[in-house]
Amino acid sequence: MSGMYWKQRHFTIGIIGTTLGLGVVYFLRKYGEYKIKKITGYGLRTFGDRVVVVNSARECEVVAENLLRKCADFRVLGFDCEWVSDARRRRPVALMQLASEDGFCALIRLCHMKQLPEGFKEILEDATIFKVGVVPYDDAAHLMQDYNIRVSGCLDLRHLMRRSGTLSHGGLSGMAENLLGIELDKSWHIRCSDWEVPVLSAHQVQYASQDALVAVAIFSKLIKHELRPWWHIWGPKQPKWSKVVELCQNYIDVKYKDKPKQGKSAHATPQDGSGQVLSQANRHIIKPGSRAYSTRQKPLYDNCILQAPDGEVLSTCDHKKAEWCTC
To answer: For the chain, how many structural domains are there in total?
Structure first.
């Protein structure tokens, strides 16, 4: 009888010890990730050499080499653009932001450059390097229209949010607060500031870099949630890249739609017979005699006006954009 008692006691102690051990390992791993986030702050607290403002083609070449090294294994870049709008029209894109998963961010001042070096264009055109953000497809269209720069591999984070069943409102700001616990600075006087000034202010640099840095952080968080369950505490921090591609391939260069039409899949994407995403070359072929951009069927603006608190007119926009800005 006593032998059975001690066996049961040892068994119980073993289970408790194993559970506590796993709990300690999990805590240390999560605490380590928290410390990394706290130190880098996703670019929100510290800058130094982590955020680089690029004003020339030569500087752009150096940054391109750096970005290629940083995304050699985890081929994802946070992507965003800024421009100046007057009361009647959008000016050409002034700033392009690209950020890697380790907290590095490059702010490319297109308004001060005559052309991008080929090495940088190759990064943008490489569909196997994902450019993640909110409405990145629209930013890519602006770059094509303004500078004839082709961007492939765009992935709207809202596709992954919908897939994971995570609800969020307010665009990237809402995602950051919901998933990362970060409150982004969306001050209107910075968002609508002059991005073509000779020298960007510290506040402009922070505002511009935070969107790209947070975008890649949200992507990393979402794929870990999908591909790396919480009990895999002893595995690598990042899932295998082949698994990431398999998860995301149906959303690459596919524009996100809030309310898909009845009878059509919300995740529809152009594919070939094997189910793989069409090649980058086929995706951008324009037939002879066709137009690169079709004629608009609806007016560009709905007579909605964005005004500063002092009454100054900042820009005109459609009602959806106005509703998004007030979220």
So the answer is: 1
